[in-house]
Amino acid sequence: MAEDFQEKTEQPTPKRLDEARKKGNVAKSMEVNSALSLITGLLLLYIFSGMFFQQFSMTFKSILSGGYMTELSPKHVFYYFVKGLGVYGKLLGIFLGSIMLVGLTSSVMQVGFLITLEPLKPNLSKLNPIKGFKKIVISKRSLEELIKNILKLIVILLVAYNAIMGYKDEFVPLMDKSPDQVLSFMLMAGLKVSLKIALIFIIIAAADYAFQKYEHIRNLKMTKQEVKDELKQTEGDPKVKSRIRSMQLQMTRNRMIKLVPEADVVITNPTHYAVALKYQPEKDNAPKLIAKGMNLIAEKIKQIATEHDIPIVEDPPLARALYKTVELDQEIPEKFFQAVAEILAYVYKLKNKTLK
């Protein structure tokens, strides 16, 4: 088909984006999840590291306080295991729970609340080893991911190297420090280096998210024919719509023409415009326009008016103004009251009526 060779130059429509979203096809960067989880983990380590090592020290002191009297039977080993699990399980639970919460929050921030089972549905084409191999080896997407990961690794290694080399003058003096001081230095230095790496991760994540958004929109772009086909599906065939509008217009005209005999007066251009007015003082606040038309329809209105002895008054400016500004079955605006009142007074005089 010719449309298969059309270039996809059109932005995806809201309908296409919504269908893709329902299938789980959304712009999402795993780098954002990784960066935020890393930052959270490092902050938790920084906050709870003192508590962790205090608990760690207290536990081992209680275990080893008995010295050679400590019996390492299976029963005692299990007891110490359960005791340690109770102490560190709380800290580990806070640590892992916080990271999971941050990961979930970052996903919601990127794609909103989205629950779909579409990606889990079995798809036999995914089991095709040839297609799978092509995706890994040939696909442009795989190449982009490979380049991105290599660049990310290079940047992280450079940042880590520079951060570590910033402490090189402090390594030799550690030989004269106590084990506690060495351990404290290593922990603080490690956290600071890790935080610098995490900040680089955030920059990479922001860039990757922007790239994923771009890729998502690019992959969903449509051809001009696809846009036309979707428009037909959502709004109907333009030819059918045009036919429906034509039929509706014809029905409105027929209904309007039937009301002309009820008019009090027809005001004309005299050849191009005709408007029919009806005034019921006991019901209406002002005269209503019950029919209007141009050219052939105007002639039809005048013809019916003549057949039913309805007065026809020539007033070109008023006829044009009423035709353009007043809709069917709508009362005339106040600015036309004086001109229309004079015409109705004239009409009522002709019919020997009294204007109320």
Describe the structure.
The chain has twelve helices and five strands. With 356 residues, the chain is an alpha+beta fold. A five-stranded mixed beta sheet has the order 4-1-2-3-5, sandwiched between helices. The longest helix is centred in the middle third of the chain and has 41 residues. α2 packs antiparallel against α3 and α5 packs antiparallel against α7. β1 and β2 form a beta hairpin. The model has no long low-confidence stretch (mean pLDDT 78). The protein folds into two domains: 194 residues, no CATH class; 91 residues, 3-Layer(aba) Sandwich (name from scop), CATH 3.40.1690. It is rod-shaped, with a radius of gyration of 41 Å.
Could you name the ranges where pLDDT drops below 50 across 5 or more consecutive residues?
Answer: none
Measured distance between first and last alpha carbons: 73 Å
H-E string: HHHHHHHHHEEEHEHEH
Helix content: 55-70%
Largest sheet: 5 strands, mixed
User: Structural class per helix/strand content?
Assistant: alpha+beta
Estimated radius of gyration: 41 Å
| Strand tally | 5
Strands in their spatial order, largest beta sheet: 4-1-2-3-5
Beta-strand proportion: 5-15%
The average pLDDT score comes to 78
Principal-axes shape call: rod-shaped
Counted by DSSP, the helix tally is 12
**Structural domains: how many:** 2
